[in-house]
Specification:
Number of strands: 4
Oligomer: single chain
Bound molecules: zinc ion
Number of helices: 3
Largest sheet: 2 strands, antiparallel
Helix content: 25-40%
Distance between the termini: 69 Å
Strand content: 15-25%
Structural class: alpha+beta
Number of domains: 1
Shape: rod-shaped
Length: 104
């Protein structure tokens, strides 16, 4: 792969770059990281596949997983507290109302 410049990310040796791609995700979009080679210096730079040269930093995969679990938990709490905000929410109707809606 061809080297890309990034004003936010420092080039590193290949083992460190490889470790980054295994353990971290993009801190901005949680996207997968890629390694770019800087041939003349035998150094490598790790960038997000989505953010590319705008990559600002990395977040450990365990932290991303924890945040996703927190977000899921919070979404469940909001659904319980405000069921009408849930797009899949269907108001429960009585049997009489259902029969009335059918025009019977
Ligand atoms: Zn990104």
């Amino acid at each position: 792969m061809k080297f890309k410049k990034s004003i936010y990310i420092e080039p590193v040796a290949y083992p460190a770059a490889q470790r980054k791609t295994f353990d971290y995700l993009c801190s901005t979009c949680w996207g997968t990281l890629r390694i770019w080679v800087q041939e003349e210096r035998d150094l490598y730079i790790v960038l997000c596949g989505e953010c590319d040269e705008d990559t600002r930093g990395f977040t450990h995969k365990a932290e991303v997983e924890r945040k996703r679990n927190d977000d899921h938990f919070n979404a469940q709490e909001v659904k319980k507290a405000y069921p009408s905000l849930d797009p899949n929410h269907k108001e429960k109707k009585s049997a009489e109302d259902n029969i009335k809606d059918l025009g019977l």
